[in-house]
Amino acid sequence: MSSYRDQVSFSFQDGHKRYRWLLASPAERILATVADAALGALAAAPLLWSVYQMRHTPHHFDVWAHVFLASPLMWGGAVLLSAYVLWQALWLAQRGQTLGKRLLGIRIIRDNGHVAGFFHCLMLRTVVFVLLCVIMIGGTLMLLRLDDNFSVYELIWLPYLASFLMLFQTTDDHRTLQDRFAKTVVVREKMRQEA
Fold first, then answer.
1. How many Cα atoms within 13 Å fall on the side-chain side of residue 127?
2. Cα Dmax for the chain
3. CA–CA separation, 47 and 45 (whole Å)
4. Residue 113, SS3?
5. Cβ neighbours of residue 189 under 8 Å, at least 6 residues apart?
6. How far apart are CA 177 and CA 102, in angstroms?
7. Which helix (H) or strand (E) element contains residue 126?
8. d(CA 185, CA 195)
9. Which DSSP state fits 70?
10. What is the rounded distance in angstroms from the CA atom of residue 85 to the CA atom of residue 87?
11. Which segments cross the bilayer (predicted)?
């Protein structure tokens, strides 16, 4: 019986050689996302705790004094969260990996086999994709005159639900909406060269 890895691969021809990556499984991609969310929550915890503490201080206490003078935890938390976000963005732009993807040995490449880089990995897959989702959902709500009943942020999960379901498709290299939009594929980290 052949395994998932033996059955599913992504390959491209470059001159006289053929290169092949094994596709990341849906489980690996989901676990990488969960790992990124958990690490992000840990990085944000000091800042969130400090903000929570600040919101529950007595009203006679000067909130701005608490922010600027009495809360090294808040500033430390802000620095920690900023460093985490910057680290994730740099790895994504340079390696096609987040920390979660690195832990699971998967990465993002372009559908032509090249390194995804800053534009495809970070800008198209992350920033532009989210902006388009917000604009499309908001525009649809306005056209249907439902913007009084729903906000964009209550429905932003819909494209991500569609992407989650697309992970399990057996065609088109398990590509999600983000992958299709940015012309990327998520593969195992190691590449195989074939004759």
1. 9
2. 75
3. 6
4. coil
5. 97, 105, 106, 107
6. 22
7. none
8. 22
9. S
10. 5
11. 30-52, 72-93, 114-144, 150-168
Calpha distance 124→118 (Å, rounded): 9
**Nearest C-alpha neighbor of 152 from the set 161, 165, 139:** 139
Tokens standing for residue 21: 């990556």
Instruction: Give the 3-state DSSP-derived string for the chain, with helices as H, strands as E and coil as C.
Output: CCCHHHHCEEEEEECCEEEEEEECCHHHHHHHHHHHHHHHHHHHHHHHHHHHHHHCCCCCCCHHHHHHCCCHHHHHHHHHHHHHHHHHHHHHHHHCCCHHHHHHCEEEEECCCCECHHHHHHHHHHHHHHHHHHHHHHHHHHHCCCCCCCCHHHHCHHHHHHHHHHCCCCCHHHCCHHHHHHCEEEEEEEEEEEC
Contact 22, 43 (CB under 8 A): no
- β-bridge partners, 19: 12, 193
Apex 82 CA angle, 188 and 132, nearest 5: 65
Averaged pLDDT of the chain: 82
CA 157, CA 163: separation in Å to the nearest integer?
10
Going by pLDDT thresholds of 50, 70 and 90, the confidence category of residue 4 is: very low
Average pLDDT of 66-77? 70
Strand partners for 194: 18
